[in-house]
Amino acid sequence: MSTLATEITFDSAKMWVTLEDGRVLGVPLAWFPRLAEATPEQRADFEISAFGLHWPSLDEDISVPALLNGRGATDSAA
């Protein structure tokens, strides 16, 4: 079963992803260097799809299953 994101917000240290089932994930921005270095405007320019989260201007793609498994962009492939 796929869990879709419905909302994304940021604070100074985390990306907060609200899922359709009501869960809210707080993910360290340090896991995603492109997002950590981005401006608020760049972070706000995202798309949510069945495939995950996408920031066109940053060329950043994040899958919700990866977040649920505690994996960030800085993790090496297992």
Automatic annotation (TrEMBL):
Gene3D superfamilies the UniProt entry points to: Uncharacterised protein PF10387, DUF2442
InterPro entries: DUF2442
Pfam families: DUF2442
Domain of life: Bacteria
Name this protein carries in UniProt: DUF2442 domain-containing protein
Organism for this UniProt entry: Marivita hallyeonensis
Organism placement in taxonomy: Bacteria, Pseudomonadati, Pseudomonadota, Alphaproteobacteria, Rhodobacterales
